[in-house]
Amino acid sequence: MNVLFGLFSAMLIGATPILLAAIGGTFTFYAGIFNIAMEGMMLVGAFCAVLGSFFLHSWFLGILCAVAGALVMAGIFVLFAVRLHTDEFLTGIALNLFAVGLTTFLLRDIFHVKGAFTDAGIRAIPAVKLPLIDGIPILGRLLSGYNAIIYVAALVTVLAAFVIFRTRFGLRLRAAGYNAVCLSSSGVPASTIRIWSLIVCAVCCGLAGAYLSLGSVRLFAENMSAGRGWISLTAVILVSGNPWGIAIISLLFGFFDGLTVFLQGSRIPTQFTAMIPYVATLVSLYLYSVRKRRQA
Amino acid sequence: MARDVLIDLRHITKVFPPDTVALSDVSVSFESGEIHALVGENGAGKSTLMKVLYGLERRDAGDIFFRGAKVEFRTPREAISAGIGMVHQEMLLIPEYTVWQNIVLGAEPVRAFGAIDVHRAREAVRQKIEEFQFNLEPDTLVGDISVAARQKVEILKLLYRNVSVLVLDEPTAVLTPQEIPQLFSELERLRDKGHTIIFISHRLDEVLTLSDRVTVMRRGKVVGTSAASDLTKEDLARQMVGREVLFTSQRQPQEPGEMVFRAQGLNCSDTEHRARLHDATIDVRAGEIVGVAGVEGNGQFELVNAIMGLAPMTSGALEVNGKDITRADILARRALISFVSQDRGKMGASINASILEDAVMTHHILDPGFSTWRGLGLNYRRAVVFTEQIRTQFSVSMSGVRDPFRSLSGGNQQKVILGRELLLETPFVLMDQPTRGLDVGSIEYVHQLLLDLRSKNRAVLLISADLDELFTVADRIVVMCQGDIVADLATDTTSREEVGYYMLGGKEAEHAETGS
Amino acid sequence: MRKQVLSGLLGVLAAFVIGALVLLFQGFNPVTTYGALLQYSLFSASGFAATVTRAVPLILTGLSASIAFASGPVNLGQPGQLIMGALGVALVGLFVRLPPVFLIPLCILASLLGGALWSGLAALLKRAFAMDEFIVTLMLNFIADYFALWVITYPLFDPSALSPMTRRISTAAWLPDLGGVNTSVLFMVFAAVVCWLIMSRGRSGYEWRMTGQNSLFARIGGCKVDANYVRVMLVTGALAGLAGGLMVMGGPHRFVKGLGANYAWDGIMIAVVAGSGVSGTFLYGLLFSALQQGAIGMELVTAVPSEFIDVLQAVIVLVVVAGRVSLNMVFDWLATRQKLKESAE
Prior knowledge:
The complex is a heterotrimer. Chain B has two domains: 5-241, P-loop containing nucleotide triphosphate hydrolases (Rossmann fold); 259-336 and 426-514, Rossmann fold. In chain B, helix 14 (380-393) crosses helix 15. Chain B has a six-stranded mixed beta sheet with strand order 6-7-8-3-9-10, sandwiched between helices. Chain B is built from 18 helices and 22 strands. Helices cover 32% and strands 26% of the residues of chain B. Chain C is mainly alpha-helical. In chain C, a hairpin with a 2-residue loop joins strand 1 (177-178) and strand 2. Chains in contact: A-B, A-C, B-C.
């Protein structure tokens, strides 16, 4: 029983950063941007979260810093890809490299360490007990007492589904992806919608980054996003952007990620358990292609 | 009767870098409540002028006056809110959205939290549909309705925004002869309600039937504006082209020879298992041009893919010169088939490559003279000579063979592609809308080339959306409708009306007017 | 071509100016910093030799990415392919006993095969199951990384070492230094020349480039685009594998933990700035190598952390790539002015 509870909570913990980044990515996906900069936005977010939390002594200000950092990245993306019409893929690659370089440099420059920075002065994001559910025996243990960001992520998913499919912004957002010229000639510049989608994406990736560095741990390590931005991109592509689908895929990855932690004590070498999320990504791509072929 | 001047364009100039002057000192005025036709051949600058007015293109010089005041529309949004709306040549709708979603996009009624007020939006659209008697259903997906109905959606989209001026860019180009009168009566109804309509076209009969006044453009300049009642078709044509134009075909009678191409019972389905081509059977003989007519999207794409081996067929047989190529790979087909596609940038060439690189494609495999080092290398020196040969033989105007392909004008790009394909010297030539988007001079050139091929006893299959083109060069016209070949007609004994009737699927023709 | 050179020079210059501003803002002296950077990378014999040696993996992974991008496949798997190439050399070097004349070619072959194996796997998944190579190669990077870590932690672990690494490979497979420059440079230059010949003079290079620009056009033109796809993936994987193999043979002579971690993404970066051209990749590879080599000296002389170079590199990429587009816009604007003047006359 305890194993199951443990695995369940490990799943939620592992799923959260991927879910947040993927929800951000789905906004740019619908807007018709080939955005691969989630990885970099998340990394900068994680770094800025530690920066804010450490110097301003507040986890909340840490989160704000994370979002601000990711927004700066989005600003660069907007400048190059939307304004100067540089190739989106190349801009994304350059931004990801920039994120790695910048955070490594600042880690050294500000905290004078190489590799990783951890300090008791970093305030972590607290866990939250859900008021009503906490009292219910099994449900309370399953769903209550997690890090605040996990609940934010759930909320963001619901909100995203509402915004994309029910609102004016959503109608225009999807129009930007389907036919940008049509949207522009309807009186809404597609570039404006794209900029907004990037802003939403940056906010989500900033939250994901803050969760990485201030969630279950309190540290920043070089390249700590470790390919999660790419996995979330895969999730977006696999379900063609549908937020509910993204939630399911993220939980699946969270499960495998949790499995990694669980198998650490077993006889399987950690190097192999660490591969699991990446192999799972390949397997899901395979299943996707099989399903697609069956439809065809 | 004297009307007020509503829109006044003065001394508009527009340059497309590096060196195309699209508009040069153009001045036109449009009066309120008139149907004003803007005519000229492709590339004369009609669309560009309207895009400048509409805020889609920036002008490099000149002024725009609207209702007597100097205006500056930087975006379509500003033009629309001033009351000017434009229906584009390539339809700007979203097939994944419903009719009402397409219409309200950009001007959606909302409730709290930015949620769309679906009920109000749908009702507003329904009201507009009734007011203007457009036969449309608000909840159908735009992807599921006919081209003529989509055009109505576009017009309605502008009327929903209460525009008083409608600009229509070649609205009849996508319609069948039977659908055109309905559009015209709708436009006349709009004019009688006080709307001003600017109508871009290069079809002279239509222009004279519909419009009150006509402005002719040629090579980025205005030739003149006159009342339609004072003009004849011959006047218009002379003004458009700058010389006398013959409206008769130069096709000489010629007896076709041996059977060269035979497609027997071709069947193709799309990815959703819908049959897109059934039992298509076409024969082409040497020295014969067979035209394929049909509204776009009725199986022509699948026919081309099947012949070229780009998509699998479910059944059927293909034969060129007695050789069975049903299962041959693309390269083997290319030794027998020259192919000019409808889209130069997508299938015909790589626009970012050099002219030379685009010119030697296919030759580089089929002609051993292009290889060096036992097939490992490509003989670039030979390629230069070859490209120069295309330049002289097909009178391409270019500055150097290593210039990027995209630096050529549309007509010259097409000449390079034609040169490449025709120098393959294959018995069978497949042409898919080879004159699409070309100016009149280039179109005449291509038609002459087709007739030359015919006299050289090559077999040509010509797919075209332009009935005039088919009637100019084709010996026979086969008509496609919904994946079927519904008619095989000799050009000399048929008429545009008969072909148009079959394009709409014969007896279903009356049905198409309901727009679903 | 001239535009490429111009936008490249302007871009690099602009990036250096931005870098100087960052330095000023941080309270460092840009002149002494850049001076030290140049001193330790280009203007000293030992620095120059080290720069050239360091360029080997940079240029090879850069060529791998360039040829892939120019030909269509988005092979982002250089990190993994490099590791598998290095692993191939480690295996041959550890277990095969032969004189250098045979062992060195055998090792080179093993590195090519190791890289091609890993990219071939991605190509296979694409061809058989239509799995996008761009995500597959990325995921294979992580998998190769952990796999190599396992190999050097367990089966091939050097018991005398403190951190995961293999024993030294047979000395017969070592590539010697000549005047401070490692002879692996010769293999790299040879590979670069072959790449240039294939892409600019070869028939396959022509077909690959046409496919990369417009695959439908190439397919209709009779090119075997599917077979070419697999070939490009194998060739580019082999190039990245060669980079890994040469690093083992010329450097630490063993597979150590984290080998190549700093180089492989650099290859993609170089391909991106070079616009996927072979000669551009060669030049930018040298530039980035000089920056990375100079960074070490810069940190010694000034207080600027060597990681500053990572930022500078990313800025170069952004500015050069965006500059290429913007410069075209400037040219267009100039041409418009010119035409307007002509038509006014």
